[in-house]
């Protein structure tokens, strides 16, 4: 993916929030689906790039460590899907471009508000502090 109009170029230039101009019809990812789909509560594919929502941590689904984590993880995934499909959004990069898995680290916003913060407010995510914390009691 090269060129000034490519998603990679847009992601690389996304260092500060801009007007909401990105959108797609998102689905749940499947074994062969890696375009405009949601993997879990904090990871999605957008135009061929795997995006990790940078400001949150959600329960694991692959695999969950307990039934409580699975249930909350499925709820977070469904909510992220709904949020991404609710209108135009922006992606902005922080100090790190990618995580150790090669996912693009981006804050996702709509009208200047982090979608991650919405998940936190709904108790489906936690603020990312650099470490994973258990979701099981």
Automatic annotation (TrEMBL):
InterPro entries the record matches: SNase_OB-fold_sf (IPR035437), Staphylococal_nuclease_OB-fold (IPR016071)
Q: Which PROSITE patterns match?
A: TNASE_3
Describe the location of the TNase-like domain by residue ranges: 35-126
> What are the alphabetically sorted keywords of the record?
Endonuclease, Hydrolase, Nuclease
SUPFAM superfamilies associated with the record: Staphylococcal nuclease
Highest taxon listed in the record's lineage: Bacteria
Q: Does the keyword Nuclease apply?
A: yes
Repeat among the record's keywords? no
**An MF annotation (GO) of this entry:** endonuclease activity
- Please state what the protein is called: Endonuclease YncB(Thermonuclease family)
Q: Give the organism the record lists.
A: Rhizobium leucaenae
């Amino acid at each position: 993916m090269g060129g000034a109009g490519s998603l990679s170029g847009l992601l690389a230039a996304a260092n500060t929030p801009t007007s909401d101009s990105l959108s797609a019809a998102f689905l749940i990812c499947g074994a062969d689906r890696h375009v405009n789909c949601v993997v879990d509560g904090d990871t999605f594919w957008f135009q061929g790039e795997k995006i990790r929502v940078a400001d949150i941590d959600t329960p694991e689904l692959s695999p969950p460590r307990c039934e409580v984590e699975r249930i909350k993880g499925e709820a977070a995934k469904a909510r992220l899907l709904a949020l991404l499909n609710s209108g135009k959004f922006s992606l902005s990069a922080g100090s790190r471009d990618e995580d150790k898995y090669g996912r693009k680290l981006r804050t996702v916003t709509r009208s200047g508000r982090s979608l991650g913060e919405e998940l936190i407010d709904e108790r489906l995510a936690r603020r990312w502090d650099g470490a994973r914390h258990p979701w099981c009691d």
